[in-house]
Every structure is written in structure tokens, then in C-alpha cells.
Design a protein that fits this description.
The chain has helices at about 5-15, 20-25, 50-60, 105-120, 155-160, 170-175, 235-245, 260, 295-300, 305-310, 340-350, 380-390, 405-415, 430-435, 455-465, 470-485; strands at about 30-35, 65, 70-75, 75-80, 90-95, 135-140, 145-150, 190-195, 200-205, 225-230, 250, 265-270, 275-285, 315-320, 355, 360-365, 365, 370-375, 400, 420-425, 490-495, 500, 505, 525. It is of the alpha+beta class and about 525 residues long. A 7-stranded mixed β-sheet has the order 8-9-10-1-11-22-12, with helices on both faces. It has a 6-stranded mixed β-sheet with strand order 14-21-13-20-18-19. A 4-stranded antiparallel β-sheet has the order 4-5-7-6, covered by helices on one side. Helix 1 packs across helix 7 (about 235-245) and helix 15 packs antiparallel against helix 16.
Length: about 525
């Protein structure tokens, strides 16, 4: 059965489900359909989009950024100053902010939250985003001083991400290991309701909320009483739910259904100004099979990105010849991936890998059969199988491990027992995208285990540069290094399409960390 026929066949089942009845009958509830859940919602210990998209509603940051991913606005900090040497930031906090518990937020909460982010015992994969911190202190109850060891030109942009969330120390200490699993007390426009892992997460309106960023018409409280994040792994079910009114919002519609959904008069569609989200393979340079740069280069040369995007992204993405998407701040395209299987074969011959009787290359009695971990979603399954077929044609027997998404993410972050992985990279700037290759980020976010003193020095130099040209030059060199060494294999630059049911008004795409909705303050059920 084709996917379109399957979607049609599912409509009857979807319409009769309790989910549909609840969605259609609750004028004060909005459902957002996503494919993957998170393993938890501790903002300092999780790094996936599945956590960030919810944390943006549960928590706030000192500053907010527009959907151009560069224009900053006050949020918890009503203003800030930066010293001429770029080392000292002073944040003047709002005095009307309350946590969902009703307790007033103070400078002590900001200091605790940001110190926890960078504390070694937290082991946060996002600690680098805070810069090299010398001290974070409260000058008084509503003023925070943030002092760096060296300048960091993207500090404010990074503190606008979900990792910069301001949280409640008492809640962290009370819940211990269950923090972000059984609760989280934030200052966001919605509060923790009920999380059923891999099923749904109900968020309840924070009625005291009045401090949303100025790019929303409604600064708070939210118009709707509940936001329900529904996990719907099956692509066809997402399409059927949106077309029958069972779902209100999604930005993970399958590429094969995008044009069909755009033509549906019951749905509205919009895209943010900027949303960088690159599908790629990471190749671990410390593993026996992928440690040879010639093998990594051959793997990249064997993949036809144009064909992959046309056939498996249904043309709803751009082929990625660079890890960073063109148009991104400080993008460099001097070295680009290309499709050349003849060159791939020559490199493997040169590296001493000889084809066996079954066509798979062998060296010193060992088969060239690297293991790749990817989320077991329909999209990654089909793409991984296509990549597996392409590599087989040059004698590489790619072995696929496809666990459910949360487990896949855990394995990619911590397990040493595989050679490669498939992921999406969300980022706002080239500097942000490249920073994951700093050796200080091993084992995560530097999951490829790239350890290179020259790369570290360039990344450090790019961070501290107060001159735009100097910063861009440093990051350009890192991009060339990463591409020349085939540390990652870029596949596609995805596009974000935010679909919403026309019973809603005020649905605005944002795109931060490739999340569609951000705070959701303007979303409301339109009058019929």
C-alpha cells in the first residue's frame, strides 16, 4: 500500500480515537504533533530538539532571539550591558517574574542555574555555550554579573537557547535524579502538567505570566489553557491527524506529504526566516575502521546527495555539500562534498582494502563493515538503508543499528561501541555548528572524537574575536578542516514547514534550534 493510500486508510481510525474527540471538543487546548520524545527535560543534561521544543515553553532565558536567529530582545533580563573588553556582562532582571510555584525569581536563581550549566559535575553537553566563565555573581536581588575569562562574541545568542533556562534550585534538589523527569518548576508561559513518556506531555497555562518577548503581540498569559505535545511516530498518522482536525500543529510533517498538505484548504503553512537543520553522518576518527581519512573520504564520495534528496526527502530539502548551510553567518564553501564513486574506489584501493568474493572489502582478515547508529524512525530507516546500498557499491558493508529515538540518542552520546552515527544538527551560526568539534567536547557534543590542537586554537580564536572578519576567517579554516578530513558527511539541509489547523490563529513559526513554535503566546482558537 502506498503512503498516500495508507494515510487515507488511517483517517477512519484516527477520527474514532479518543485523541480526536478530545482535540475537537476542547477549545482551550492545542495539540502539537511530534515524532520523537525526549529522555527527560533537564535543560542542562539533554541536547535534543525533543527536549528543547518543550523547554522553551516551560522555562525562560535571560534574553530571547527573533526568528532571524540574530536579533536579541529582553526576556528575564530587562536590559544588559557589556564591558568594552567583552569580558563582563551585567544583567538587570525584571522584578515581576514568578516561577510556576508562585515564588518570585531573583538573581540567586539566575546565578544557580548558569553555574549549574558550567559545573563539571553536571557534565552538560552544552557547557561550552556559556563561554569560559570566571564568575557569575548576584550584585543584588535583581542584578547579575557574568564575568568571562576571555571574550565570547556569541554568548547572548547561546544564552537564548534552552540550555540557558533559569530553573529552581529547590526543585532540582528535591527531585534529584528525577529532575526533568517527574517535574520542573520554570518561569515559562506553561507549567509542567503530566508527562507520559513516548505518548504525550500536557502543559498547563502559567496564569501569572506577563513577561513574554516583545516580538509577540501577547506578552502573556497564553491564550490557551493547555498545550499538549503528542508523540506520533508514524508519519502517515501525523498527516491523517492534521487533515482530519485530530492535530492542531506540526512541524515534522513527512516530506512526501508536504505538497499535499500545502494544498489542503483546512491547513495553514508558514516557515521561519532562518532555521538551520542539517542531516549528516558523524564518523568516529578514533575507531579502527573509520580512523583512516581515506575510508571516511570514500564513504562521503560514494553518496549521491542529489538523488537522496530527490527520492527520500521528496525534494523538500537542499542537498548538503557542506556541513553548514549556505547563508549562515560565517559560512564557508571552499571545500564541498561531491559524488564520485570512482574516486571512492581508488581511495579504498590505496588504503589497502581489497574486495572479497562477496564484493565487501577486506584488509588483514577484517571486513570493512562499520556500524552506524540512527534513530529507528521511518525517515532515518529508509535513508540509512539507501546509504547502506550506496556504500555497498564501493565495497563497504555498513551495518545498521536502529533503536527507538531516545535510546539512539543515548547511545550516540555515550556508547563507544560503534563507528558512525546519523543525526540532525540545529545551529544558528557557523561558529555554533563548528564548536562541537572542539576537543573539550569529547565525548559529547564532540561525538566524532576529533582531537586536533589547530582546530581548538581556531575555535578559541573565533570565539574571542571582536572583529567580524577575524572571527569569520577562523571559522572558515575549521570548516575546511572538517570537510577535508570527512569527519562528518553532510546529507541534506532540511526546511521547516509549520502546519496548523485553521481553527487556530496566531500560529507563528520561529525556528530556534529548529523548533517551530517557541513560546506559543499568540496561539489561540479562532472564533467560528
Amino acid at each position: 500500500m502506498s503512503r498516500r493510500l495508507l494515510a487515507a486508510a488511517l483517517i477512519g481510525a484516527v477520527l474514532s480515537s479518543p485523541f480526536v474527540a478530545a482535540a475537537q471538543g476542547a477549545r482551550d487546548t492545542v495539540s502539537i504533533l511530534v515524532r520523537n520524545d525526549s529522555v527527560g527535560f533537564d535543560p542542562h543534561r539533554v541536547s535534543g530538539r525533543g527536549a528543547a521544543e518543550v523547554l522553551f515553553m516551560l522555562t525562560d532565558t535571560l534574553v530571547a532571539v527573533e526568528d532571524d536567529q540574530k536579533t536579541l530582545h529582553p526576556l528575564l533580563a530587562k536590559s544588559w550591558t557589556v564591558s568594552p573588553d567583552g569580558l563582563t556582562y551585567v544583567f538587570d532582571l525584571r522584578q515581576d517574574v514568578k516561577f510556576c510555584s508562585g515564588r518570585a525569581m531573583t538573581a540567586a536563581d539566575v546565578v544557580y542555574s548558569l553555574k549549574r550549566l558550567v559545573a563539571p559535575e553536571t557534565r552538560s553537553p552544552a557547557a561550552w555555550r556559556a563561554g569560559k566563565v570566571r564568575s557569575i555573581t548576584a550584585r543584588d536581588a535583581h542584578t547579575v554579573e557574568y564575568v568571562l575569562e576571555r571574550p565570547y562574541n556569541e554568548l547572548l545568542l547561546q544564552l537564548a537557547q534552552s540550555f540557558g533556562a533559569i530553573i529552581d534550585k529547590e526543585e532540582v534538589e528535591k527531585l534529584g535524579r528525577d529532575y526533568g523527569v517527574k517535574g520542573l518548576n520554570g518561569t515559562g508561559p506553561f507549567c509542567w502538567g503530566d508527562w507520559k513518556p513516548r505518548s504525550e506531555f500536557v502543559l498547563n497555562r502559567h496564569d501569572a505570566y506577563r513577561w513574554g518577548p516583545a516580538f509577540y503581540e501577547n506578552r502573556g498569559p497564553a491564550h490557551v489553557a493547555r498545550m499538549v505535545w503528542k508523540v506520533v511516530p508514524e508519519e502517515s498518522s501525523i498527516v491523517a491527524a492534521m487533515q482530519t482536525g485530530a492535530g492542531d500543529i506540526t512541524y515534522v510533517a513527512p516530506e512526501w506529504a508536504v505538497e499535499q498538505m500545502k494544498r489542503d484548504p483546512r491547513l495553514a503553512v508558514a516557515s521561519p526566516r532562518v532555521s538551520n537543520y542539517t542531516a549528516f553522518l558523524g564518523l568516529r576518527v578514533n575507531k579502527e575502521l573509520t580512523g583512516d581519512v581515506r575510508v571516511r573520504q570514500a564513504m562521503s564520495l560514494a553518496i549521491n546527495r542529489e538523488e537522496l534528496v530527490k527520492g527520500l526527502w521528496f525534494g523538500q530539502a537542499d542537498p548538503a555539500t557542506t556541513y553548514v548551510s549556505p547563508g549562515t553567518l560565517d559560512w564557508n564553501g571552499d571545500v564541498r562534498a561531491r559524488f564520485d564513486p570512482d574516486a571512492a574506489n581508488r581511495l579504498l584501493d590505496e588504503a589497502g582494502w581489497v574486495r572479497g568474493a562477496d564484493g565487501v572489502r577486506v584488509k588483514d582478515g577484517k571486513r570493512l563493515a562499520p556500524q552506524l547508529v540512527a534513530a529507528g524512525t521511518p525517515g532515518w530507516r529508509t535513508r540509512s538503508e539507501a546509504i547502506q546500498g550506496a556504500l555497498k557499491r564501493v565495497g563497504i558493508d555498513l551495518r545498521l543499528l536502529l533503536p527507538e529515538p531516545a535510546l539512539a540518542m543515548a547511545q550516540i552520546n555515550s556508547s563507544p561501541d560503534f563507528d558512525a552515527y546519523a543525526l540532525f544538527a540545529p545551529y544558528g551560526t557557523a561558529g555554533e555548528a563548528m564548536m562541537v568539534f572542539h576537543s573539550a567536547g569529547i565525548p559529547a557534543p564532540n561525538r566524532v572524537n576529533w582531537r586536533d590542537a589547530a582546530t581548538d586554537a581556531l575555535l578559541d580564536g573565533g570565539q574571542v574575536a571582536l572583529d567580524d572578519a577575524e572571527r569569520a576567517a577562523a571559522y572558515a579554516k575549521v570548516q575546511r578542516t572538517i570537510m577535508e578530513n570527512a569527519v562528518v558527511i553532510p546529507l541534506a539541509h532540511e526546511k521547516l514547514f509549520l502546519f496548523s489547523n485553521k481553527r487556530l490563529a496566531g500560529v507563528k513559526p520561529h525556528g530556534i534550534y529548529n523548533c517551530g513554535v517557541y513560546k506559543g503566546l499568540d496561539v489561540k482558537v479562532a472564533a467560528r
